[in-house]
Fold:
Amino acid sequence: MPLHRGGATLLAVSSLRHRSLPWITALVCVGALACVGHDSAARVTHGFVSYYAAARALVAGHFGVWVYDDALFGTYVRQITGSPVREVFAPNTPAMALFALPVAWLNPQAARQVWLALSLVALIGSVAWLATYSLDHRGPWVSLWVAIALVNPAVLENLRTAQAYLLIFGALTLAVWALIDGREALTGAALGVVFPMKPTFGPLLLVLLWQRRMRVILIAGMAAVVVILATIPLVSSETWFEWPRAVATFTARPSTSVTAYQTTTGFIRHLCVADAQLNPTAPANCSPIAPILPWLLIAVATLVTFWASQATPAPL
Structure:
């Protein structure tokens, strides 16, 4: 065999190995995810029941300010699930009740199973596209990123409690794909529809504004306004006005300092804010700055992203 043909064969084999290793990793991870999802499908836990109960209240026509009263909402959750599970609706926006609307007509266990199946599809599909894109653009350590994306503790916890973040991850991946593919209208629509439900990715919109992607911002803003206006007849404007107060009250609770709240705010409160019952051994006495630090970190991260995006290809 000529030398150049042998070299080409070795290069092809090396390329095949390079591309197949992430998918071997993914298959192992998906097996683990399937086991976790199967075990989770038979449970009634906090997390999903919050969205499900809110959607049921919306369908029944009595969604309102009362959903931010922990005692009233907790009683309602126990009534419709027939379980002792405790859950609150804060700090979700009123629009979050729409998220579980497609499964609200099912009983709690069937609704949870469908929700988990959709979550797995969103997760695996998103990771598959991101990994393929990385391989096509010679991204390093793709197998490692695939493993981290699929079986890190946050993903497993989302499956255990059937929360909404994997579906939101799918929506954000769709927006990123559309942005890279030049489909700005689809990008704006995807971001705008999800934003009223989970506004925590607002800094991404700021980055797009910084990049002068005005069409994306305009469409996202219009879509968000349409979603909010469409919810008002269902949830009432009073509930929207109550939401900021409910968020402020929720984040100030001593319970948010326990490690179960896997958020920046919860982590900082765990470090800074002592509580005799829930956080008796806070490492530092820095409670005055605890409310400020999360916003400061968000601002710094966003500014660094602004700076980095000036000399970085848009897809990255």
Summary: Confidence is low (pLDDT under 50) at residues 1-17.
